[in-house]
Amino acid sequence: MQKNVKPFGLKDKIGYAAGDVANNFTFTLVSSFLMIFYTNVWGIDPKLVGGLFFLSRIIDAFTDVGMGTIVDKFPGNKDGKFRPFIKWGAIPVAIAGFLLFQSGFKDLPMGTKIVIMYATYILWGSLCYTFINIPYGSMASAITSDADQRTELSTFRTLGATVAGLVIGFVTPYLIYQKVPGQADILLENRFPLVAGIYGILAIISYFICYSFCTERVDIERESAGPKENALKGIGNVINKRSLLSIIVVSICLLLGMLLVGSMNIYVYSTYFQDTTGMALAGLCGTVPMLFTAPMAMKLGQNIGKKEASSIGLIGAGVTYFILFILKLENMYLFLAGTVIAYIFLGIFNTLTWAMITDVIDDLEIKNGVRDDGKVYAIYSFARKLGQAFAGGLGGFAVASVGYVAGAATQTAEVAQGIYNVATLIPAIALGLGGLVVFLIYPLDRKTVEKNNNTLAEKRAKLQ
Question: Which of the chain's ends, N or C, has fewer CB atoms near its CB within 10 Å?
Answer without folding.
Answer: C
